[in-house]
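User: We ran a pulldown and think these components assemble together. Before we commit to crystallization trials, I'd like a predicted model of the whole complex to look at. Sequences follow.
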Amino acid sequence: QVQLQESGPGLVKPSQTLSLTCTVSGASITSGSYYWTWIRQPAGKGLEWLGHIYTGGTTKFNPSLWSRVTISLHTSNNQVSLKLTSVTAADSAIYYCARADLFADDNAVPNHWGPGTLVTVSS
Amino acid sequence: SYELTQPPSVSVSPGQTAMITCSGDALPKKYAYWYQQRSGQAPLLVIYEDTKRPSGIPERFSGSTSGTMATLTISGVQVEDEADYYCYSTDRIGDERVFGGGTKLAVL
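Assistant: Here's a predicted model for the assembly, 231 residues in total across the polymer chains.
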C-alpha cells in the first residue's frame, strides 16, 4: 500500500521560497498512471488544490498560483517536491501531498494522502 | 475561476439523515467527488463519480446528482460522522480542479 510523508521547514520568512518534500513508499513515482498532487489547507479553512505532476513528468497548476509553484519528481529518492516562491503570511497552511488516481472523465482525484505538514510564514 | 458552493454547516441528531449539497455549473458534465475530513486528519474519499462508494466506506454514505447540484447523503448518522465534508470536481474542460468550501457536519 502506498504511503506518503511530507517534510520540510515548519517556518519560512516572508518573500522567501517554501520547499517541501513528499517521500513515497510502497510505489514508484514513475510507474502507473498517477498524478502526484499538492494540496494545502490554511488553519480553520478549506482545501486548496495547488497542482500535480504526472508520472511521466507533465505538470498542471492552480491558475491563481501557477507563476509561483514548481512541482518536480526526484526518482533517485522516490520523492516529489513542491516549491512556492515569494511567500507571504497567506501561504501559511498545512500542506498535503497525495497520489491522485485517474477516474472516469479523466479526472485525477487525490485518493491517498500524507498526514500533512504545517508551514508558517513569519519573520 | 471555477467555484463549487457548499453550505457552511449542517446539523443533525444521531440516527437522522444528513444531506450536504455542492453546486457548480459544470456538474451536469463533470463528476463530483466527496471527502470526509475528521479533526486533525487528512481527507478521506467517501464518494467518487457522483454515486460510488470506495471499499471500506459504510453503506450509509451515498451520493446523487441533479443538474448543477451534487448531494452527499448520510443515512442514520452516527456520532463518528461528525467532520468536515468537501466536494471536488473540475471545470467544464477539465482544466481547473477545485474543492468546495467545505461543510461542517455537527451531530448533536
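The two ends of chain A are 39 Å apart (CA to CA). That may be worth checking against your pulldown data before setting up trials.

User: Thanks, that helps.
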